[in-house]
Specification:
The chain has a six-stranded parallel beta sheet, sandwiched between helices. Strands 2-3 form a two-stranded antiparallel ribbon. The chain is α/β, with parallel strands linked by helices and 229 residues long. The protein has two domains: 148 residues, 3-Layer(aba) Sandwich (Rossmann fold), CATH 3.40.50; 70 residues, DNA polymerase, domain 1. It is 43% helix and 13% strand. Helix 3 packs across helix 4.
Length: 229
């Protein structure tokens, strides 16, 4: 039985990936470097910020940890400056989250910065719906490694009784790296086709077109089944 839902953040709960891309692109351009949207879909979506910067630099033929730190700091500052006015919640996000919180323990496992996640959740009035938040600040190895989701499970088990097991958790993701991380954590996965199509997200248990589809009973009928052993 499903008892918890663990969300990715950027792209799933908030429409932020284009703003994230613009912030990274501008930070790189200040060093004479470039990044296309197609490349960002590969190196940025679903990965922690630091790893996204590192991969973007590698695509420009650069391997320099000091520069990674500089670009990340500048990218974060740009995104933070744009956050309030340009980053919007996905349509109906607050109502969807509140509805799911009536039935499941909720958490977030994201590559975004904690202060960015907290700012949006508080603005939308849903911070109290989440029992646990795992952010870029909490781990060194991110998706597709399962660490972010396993940390979210650990945090949930600090407040949920009896303790959750991985197969009782459903991950909601929008990127192949996130789907792979959820599966590696032993969790079931719902993928939303926002930036990737169903073929790219085929390893998910269920693929949906938009976040509001989580309120459809058919989705949970497909998930609420004994785990595959």
């Amino acid at each position: 039985m499903v008892r918890a839902v663990i969300f990715d953040f950027d792209g799933v709960l908030v429409d932020s990936e284009r703003v994230q891309f613009e912030a990274l692109s501008q930070a790189l351009s200040e060093h004479g470097l470039t990044l296309s949207w197609d490349d960002y879909r590969t190196v940025g979506i679903g990965l922690p910020d630091r790893e996204a910067v590192r991969l973007a630099l590698e695509r420009n033929g650069i391997c320099d940890e000091a520069l990674v730190a500089q670009v990340l700091e500048r990218k974060t500052a740009l995104y933070d400056a744009w956050l309030a006015e340009r980053v919007r919640a996905v349509d109906g996000m607050a109502d969807i989250v509140r509805a799911l919180a009536q039935r499941f323990a909720l958490a977030i496992a994201s590559g975004a910065m904690r202060h960015q996640i907290e700012a949006v959740l508080r603005r939308e009035g849903v911070r109290d719906c989440f029992a646990a938040i795992v952010s870029h600040d909490d781990y060194e190895v991110g998706k597709p490694d399962p660490t972010p989701f396993l940390l979210a499970l650990e945090k949930l088990n600090g407040v949920v009784h009896p303790p959750l097991r991985p197969h009782e958790c459903v991950v909601v993701e929008d990127a192949p790296a996130g789907v792979a991380a959820g599966r590696s954590a032993g969790m079931r996965c719902v993928a939303v086709t926002i930036y990737f199509d169903g073929e790219a997200l085929r390893d998910a248990d269920v693929v949906i077109a938009q976040l509001s589809d989580l309120l459809r009973p058919q989705v949970w009928e497909r998930l609420d089944m004994p785990p595959l052993l």
